[in-house]
């Protein structure tokens, strides 16, 4: 946690979910009570096909709906892509860019991620920029170097504490049940804070830094208690309302 920063718990459904999965979203909104709303911001990033309907389910609940990627252009001949403006048009208020699955599966470089993040800002979306080292990079002792490279190369110049969130997601911890040690998360987040403050001043000091990678209700409190961890980006455990709310409840205790 960072004093004076309201935590964000963001879910990433990835390529999961059909229209009938929106009942699970309804369960999340029902459990997001006034006490939780006051302490924690909540966001669910859904497949593009569900954004519009999900925004309706979440209307008036303060659960935010977002996309998982966007093209860097506003429109044009880009078959299969969606733009930040389209996410906003569907009722989305946020977008994830640079998730390691995009970087790996779609060859997204830092400069592509930066263009997408700039598009997120252009579309008036809260933009979550993901960074994180692979297992090989970690074993080679390159973690902080990789984080520096990704931050320097992926963050838009116009980043502020209001419009950008950074998610540290060690690639080897995503979907594996493996979680770095408290000391390792502490070191990575302190490094990110220092880098962002040096570049963005007071905005960098107040920017939300999420941890992502196998966050579950059982480890959420310990992770959230680490300095400069201002919330979580949650994959698998965001698919079930009970688990997602369990993570939020663990965080709520500390706020
Ligand atoms: C993710 O993909 O962003 C993620 C953190 O996944 P999981 O929580 O399933 O590890």
Structure description:
This protein is of the alpha/beta class. The protein has a single domain, classed as TIM Barrel, CATH 3.20.20. It is built from twelve helices and eight strands. It has an eight-stranded parallel barrel, surrounded by six helices. Strand 3 (63-67), helix 4 and strand 4 form a beta-alpha-beta unit. The longest helix has 19 residues, at 182-200. It is globular. The mean pLDDT is 97. It binds phosphoenolpyruvate. Phosphoenolpyruvate binds next to strand 8.
Shape summary: globular
Q: Quote the average pLDDT.
A: 97
Query: Regions with pLDDT < 50 over 5+ consecutive residues?
Result: none
Order of helices and strands: EHHEHEHEHHEHHEHHEHEH
Give the C-level CATH assignment. Alpha Beta
Annotated CATH architecture? Alpha-Beta Barrel
Distance separating the two termini? 8 Å
Computed over alpha carbons, the radius of gyration is 17 Å
CATH topology, what is it called? TIM Barrel
Hetero ligands: phosphoenolpyruvate
Summed up, the helix count is: 12
Please state how the strands of the largest beta sheet are arranged side by side.
1-2-3-4-5-6-7-8
Number of strands: 8
CATH superfamily: Aldolase class I
- Helical content stands at 40-55%
Q: How many separate structural domains?
A: 1
User: How does the major sheet shape up?
Assistant: 8 strands, parallel, barrel
């Amino acid at each position: 946690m960072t004093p004076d920063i309201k935590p964000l718990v963001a879910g990433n459904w990835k390529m999961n979910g059909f229209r009938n999965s929106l009942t699970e979203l309804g369960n999340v909104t029902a459990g997001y009570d006034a006490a939780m709303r006051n302490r924690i911001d909540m966001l669910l990033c859904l497949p593009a096909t569900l954004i519009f309907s999900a925004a309706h389910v979440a209307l008036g609940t303060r659960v935010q709906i977002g996309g998982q990627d966007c093209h860097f252009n506003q429109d044009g001949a880009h078959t299969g892509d969606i733009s930040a403006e389209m996410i906003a048009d569907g009722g989305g208020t946020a977008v994830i860019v640079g998730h390691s699955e995009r970087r790996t599966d779609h060859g997204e470089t830092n400069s592509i991620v930066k263009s997408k993040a700039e598009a997120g800002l252009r579309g008036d979306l809260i933009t979550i920029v993901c960074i994180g080292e692979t297992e090989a990079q970690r074993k080679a002792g390159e973690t902080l170097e990789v984080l520096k490279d990704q931050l320097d190369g992926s963050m838009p110049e116009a980043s502020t504490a209001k419009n950008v969130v950074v998610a540290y997601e060690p690639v080897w911890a995503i979907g594996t049940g493996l979680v770095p040690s408290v000391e390792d998360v502490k070191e990575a987040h302190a490094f990110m804070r220092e880098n962002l403050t040096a570049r963005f001043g007071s905005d960098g000091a107040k920017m939300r830094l999420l941890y992502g990678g196998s966050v579950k209700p059982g480890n959420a409190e310990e992770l959230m208690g680490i300095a400069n961890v201002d919330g979580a980006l949650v994959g698998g455990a965001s698919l079930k309302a009970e688990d997602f709310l369990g993570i939020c409840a663990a965080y709520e205790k500390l706020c």
